[in-house]
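[step 3/7] fold_predict: job queued, chain A
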Amino acid sequence: MPENSILVVEDDKTLLEVLRYNLEKEGYNVVTASDGSQGVETARNMKPDFIILDIMLPKMSGFEVCRILRKEMSTPILMLTARDDEIDKVVGLDLGADDYITKPFKMRELLARIRAIIRRVTPVEQQPENVESLLKIGDIEIDISRHKVKFKSSEINLPLKEFDLLVFLTKNKGIVFNREQLLEKVWGYDYPGDTRTVDVHIQWLRTKIEDNPREPKRLVTVRGVGYKLEA
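[step 4/7] structure written:
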């Protein structure tokens, strides 16, 4: 059974209790917050392994909560949106959310997404011994076991999906991948998002590993094809 801690930020008391019940049933340690300000404070104090964050919250929106927390921690964030609005999804991803799910949702799907995301950040010592732990390309160093990245010897904070994307491209340096391939390889073939997700994360990653993100030299665009990390 999992022992990961999950912070749920949701103002709908009924949904909050349903989420708490089902997550605790799965073995998670659950802490809740009912508004955005409380969510930020709780996340700072608790340092959870995972955050479920509603968009529509009192005092501070889920977007603002995500923006603040993403600057301070790399904890995976799954956002809940009340409508199937592409703008909500794109804004959430732009702010650094790792995934989103639209209400109403099936609890089985939510739990599956949580498990999939947590598996991706499981320390390497809990994974098979043949998993490569340290990667280096130019002035970028990646420690997979500790989920840490250094750029020019300085540690940088990467959310889950940016980290996954960088690891994948580093392992396949010099190879061009189109958006559909990256969506399948990094997010999973059954991910419900679209290729806009890839573009957003490429843009965010460039702000961390490029001297000038507007003129990238490392994570480059191959016009009409896709992206590659220069070897």
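[step 5/7] annotate
Residues 107-120 form the longest helix (14 residues).
The domain at 130-229 is CATH 1.10.10.10 (Arc Repressor Mutant, subunit A).
exit 0
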